[in-house]
Amino acid sequence: MTELNLVEAVNAALSCGMSRDDSVLLLGEDIGANGGVFRATNGLQARFGRERVIDAPLAEGGIAGVAVGMAAMGLRPVAEIQFTGFIYPTFDQMINHASRLRNRTRGRLSCPMVLRSPYGAGIHAPEHHSESPEALFAHIPGLRVVIPSTPARAYGLLLAAMRDPDPVVFLEPTRLYRLFKQEVVDDGEALPLDACFMTREGLDVTVVAWGAMVREAMLAAETLEGEGVEVEIIDVATLKPCDFDTILRSVEKTGRCVIVQEAPRSNGFGAEIAAEIGERALYSLQAPICRVAAYDVVVPLYRLERDYIPSVERIIGAIRGVMEGA
User: Fold this and answer.
1) Global pTM value
2) Active site annotation includes 124
3) By the 8 A CB rule, do 205 and 258 touch?
4) What is the pLDDT of residue 313?
5) Containing domain of residue 140, as a range?
6) Mean pLDDT value across residues 233-248
7) Same domain, 113 and 218
8) GO MF terms on file (predicted)?
């Protein structure tokens, strides 16, 4: 058992996956000699060689397209996109080909690939590299969308993604890469996909979050504990397909729900969770569902970026609001 931060856990998972399965290979911009812009692939080319850790041209659509072809032919490529700000050229390949290959060929071919990318705001990246586009991918049938919230979950979920027979979009919260360390057992054991994690148990209110927002929710819960408010926290982890049953059981127990997302409020994945609760657990609610989200603007640069991200204070305010609304 070793203490790792999130980017080290990603590196450990990639190394483990490659050592156990010769069909796993990596491709992306600067991932080989430089070890990636965040060093997630540091040392892997030296260990596994240039044929399995491939430095790709600056062509995100091409990276995704090559990965689709590799996957169709029996390999398990893990493609890195340097920032989510560069991920949009991959949409053509991911939507038109990766997500549809199994259906298009009536099961004769599958697409076991992973599209990895640093994700979210908080590190003051220039040129708007800090988007949270998870809802765009989660809307597409045939794609899994996974977002870890801790080093241990990054390790286990990435291993599961590499072993999945279908395409997975794996978004890594950039702000968490080196924020804290956690004990991680590098034993090759995967965590389950398509399942929420009960991060904290409570009786008064359910907070549903994913990625970096799970940590903010935990800090809010610790503050409110001193006020006698018991907060239950659900880490969604796999947004598509989402484990709504776990969320609904929690809401039926607490009667209140706050949903926290780093993405802009309008048409975000939090609205899908709210709709599901409204359709299946409306009569369990003692107060209206509340969403805490970023604002409907492009991620602002530098000094305003911290005000853009949902804060612990905003989450605390939302929780107090639903408690008073009962």
Assistant:
1) 0.96
2) no
3) yes
4) 97
5) 2-184
6) 98
7) no
8) oxidoreductase activity
